[in-house]
Amino acid sequence: KLFFTDYGNAAKVERCDMDGMNRTWIVDSKIEQPTALALDLVNKYVYWVDIYLDSVEVVDYQGRKRHTIIKGRQIRHLCGLAVFENYLYTVNSDNLSILRINRYNGSDVQSLARLDNAKEIRVYQKRSQTGVRSHACEADPYGMPGGCSHICLLSSNYKARTCRCRTGFILGSDGRSCK
């Protein structure tokens, strides 16, 4: 799945399949300017920062179990969001500090460091990387991803795929080759 935020005409948090199909709104009320987004892949939770409401909130992948982690002036100007173990990590763009926030109750907010021009944050740790199983976009014997001549996108699950073409090409009737 692909998760993303939008604060155009109607602010929302959405998800879709990797090929763009099955687009679903998972949060569309009491939300103004959702920006940074982070996933808890193990427990299937979506965390986001709303910079207008000065809040960090969470829902499950279906948009249920919504609650506010932390809200208020203490977390104004946040950009970037990452989740690891018991904490959320984010960047305060006002003073360029990296903050650590307890993701279960919003307590224990600590400034860890300051970085010039930081706008995003990521946590890379072996335990947070999910195991990769074989999938529909693996290279075929000819080196073509998923048998697609240009682009292979995972679809509704790891066994399904959709072929797409680069700009200026159209997908052939076989659903794999581009002309």
Write the layout of secondary structure elements.
Elements: E1 2-6, E2 12-16, E3 24-27, E4 34-40, E5 45-50, E6 55-60, E7 67-71, E8 78-84, E9 87-92, E10 97-102, E11 110-114, E12 151-154, E13 161-164
Antiparallel strand pairs: 1-2, 2-3, 4-5, 5-6, 6-7, 8-9, 9-10, 10-11, 12-13
Description:
- Keywords: Lipoprotein, Receptor.
- It comes from Tauraco erythrolophus (Red-crested turaco).
- Pfam families: FXa_inhibition, Ldl_recept_b.
- LDL-receptor class B repeats lie at residues 1-43, 44-87.
- GO terms for molecular function: Wnt receptor activity; Wnt-protein binding.
- The protein has 179 residues and is mainly beta.
- It has two domains: 2-126, Neuraminidase (6 Propeller), CATH 2.120.10.30; 133-178, Ribbon (Laminin).
- 0% of the residues lie in helices and 39% in strands.
- The protein has no helices and 13 strands.
- The chain has strands spanning 2-6, 12-16, 24-27, 34-40, 45-50, 55-60, 67-71, 78-84, 87-92, 97-102, 110-114, 151-154, 161-164.
- The strands form four sheets. A four-stranded antiparallel β-sheet has the order 4-5-6-7, with no helix packed on it. A four-stranded antiparallel β-sheet has the order 8-9-10-11, with no helix packed on it. A three-stranded antiparallel β-sheet has the order 1-2-3, with no helix packed on it.
- A hairpin with a 2-residue loop joins strand 8 (78-84) and strand 9 (87-92).
- The two termini are 28 Å apart.
